């Protein structure tokens, strides 16, 4: 087995994937250093903790890549059940922060199970898709089982409440299902059901502050002192960056504490203000390359399970980038979605790097030995 792993590392190691992740992560740490430079105390050292998490996550990614992904197919449902149990434990043992229950305190570490649910649910859906032997298009009845797999964690995450993570979890799972054919009639029923479900969610499921966030970005008269404060300050930062930016550690919106949460949800405006339009283009092109390369890995996968994994991880990157960049540019509502490798977070960094490990795994096994 050791010789097999050595052979794969030598001949099939995906250097483009490795390098683009390293470049984005390095830029993310540099930006986090700048974003926390105006802070005092523990927050001023977050970039050091981020390096630790990246190192730990990188080690985990190596282990994930070394084990044949067929093993993950065998344990996909078990991992899914474990992730559901962790979500339930959040309500029993979880730590409340800002009125939400999303974390479990493990010593000095705040563990956020919903970050790993994204991967566990994706693996469960990928296994279901791979094991399915239908030759024709799926009917509505065929979607009941995967729909139930998706609905259970979504309900638990919404109850925390965490709208942003619920959106990402749902979209990643649905994207993984894109490998199957669905009839137009079934698709129409799904769209209609989604509209009805969305209406009911708006009327009875969302809290008032969530509704205000969802509507404030569409309003022509934004309450810049209230619900629209973050988005407004973000736009000021991005706009003032102009072509070449104000320079490293020179973001006025960050240094003068106008822009909140620059280490989690809003690191991108700091980058935009300091590095300007050209810096923004560079980062977006790096993300685009990562997403397109991940799709290439999916297209070259040797079986349907590998393809489903690669599509799921691609969707994880894609939706995170779309929602975060959309939030900070007022193209989408502020729902608390992080930017991969730029946002600080132990659980989120580990989950993203496990996703990279899964991608590397599928890529290294794209050819039979």
N- and C-termini, Cα separation: 13 Å
Order of helix and strand elements from N to C terminus: HHHHHEEEHHHHHHHHHH
Instruction: Write down the Rg.
Output: 21 Å
Low-confidence stretches: none
Helix % is 55-70%
Integer average pLDDT? 86
Written account of the structure:
- With 369 residues, this protein is mostly helical.
- It has a domain at 1-66 and 224-302 and 330-369.
- Helix content is 67%, strand content 4%.
- The chain has 15 helices and three strands.
- The chain has helices spanning 2-11, 15-35, 46-66, 69-74, 76-93, 113-131, 144-158, 163-176, 184-205, 208-216, 229-240, 252-255, 267-300, 304-328, 346-364; strands spanning 95-97, 100-106, 109-111.
- The chain has a three-stranded antiparallel sheet, covered by helices on one side.
- A hairpin with a 2-residue loop joins strand 2 and strand 3 (109-111).
- Helix 3 (46-66) runs parallel beside helix 15 and helix 13 runs antiparallel to helix 14.
- The two termini are 13 Å apart.
- The mean pLDDT is 86.
């Amino acid at each position: 087995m050791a010789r097999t792993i050595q052979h794969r590392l030598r001949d099939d190691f995906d250097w483009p994937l490795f390098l683009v992740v390293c470049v984005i992560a390095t830029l993310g740490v540099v930006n986090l250093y700048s974003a926390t430079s105006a802070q005092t105390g523990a927050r001023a050292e977050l970039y050091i903790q981020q390096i630790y998490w990246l190192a730990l996550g990188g080690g985990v990614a190596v282990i994930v890549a070394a084990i044949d992904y067929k093993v993950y197919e065998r344990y996909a449902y078990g991992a899914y059940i474990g992730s559901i149990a962790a979500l339930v434990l959040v309500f029993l043992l979880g730590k409340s922060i800002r009125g939400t229950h999303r974390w479990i305190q493990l010593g000095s570490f705040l563990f956020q199970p919903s970050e790993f649910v994204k991967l566990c649910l994706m693996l469960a859906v990928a296994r279901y898709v791979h094991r399915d032997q239908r030759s024709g298009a799926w009917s509505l009845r065929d979607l009941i089982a995967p729909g139930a797999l998706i609905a259970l964690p979504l309900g638990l995450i919404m109850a925390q409440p965490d709208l942003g993570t619920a959106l990402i979890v749902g979209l990643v799972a649905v994207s993984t299902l894109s490998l199957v054919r669905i009839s137009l009639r079934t698709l129409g029923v799904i769209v209609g059901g989604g509209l009805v479900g969305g209406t009911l969610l708006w009327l009875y499921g969302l809290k008032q502050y969530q509704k205000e966030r969802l509507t404030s970005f569409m309003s022509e008269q934004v309450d810049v002192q209230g619900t629209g404060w973050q988005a407004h300050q973000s736009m000021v930062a991005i706009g003032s960056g102009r072509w070449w930016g104000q320079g490293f550690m020179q973001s006025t919106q960050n240094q003068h504490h106008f822009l909140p949460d620059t280490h989690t949800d809003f690191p991108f405006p700091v980058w935009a203000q300091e590095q300007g339009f050209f810096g923004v283009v560079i980062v977006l092109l790096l993300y685009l390359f990562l997403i397109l390369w991940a799709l290439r890995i999916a297209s070259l996968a040797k079986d349907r399970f590998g393809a489903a994994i690669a599509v799921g991880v691609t969707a994880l990157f894609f939706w995170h980038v779309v929602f975060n960049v959309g939030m900070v540019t007022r193209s989408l509502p502020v729902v608390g979605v992080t930017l991969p490798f730029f946002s600080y977070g132990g659980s989120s960094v580990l989950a993203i790097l496990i996703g990279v490990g899964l991608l590397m795994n599928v890529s290294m096994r794209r050819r039979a030995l």
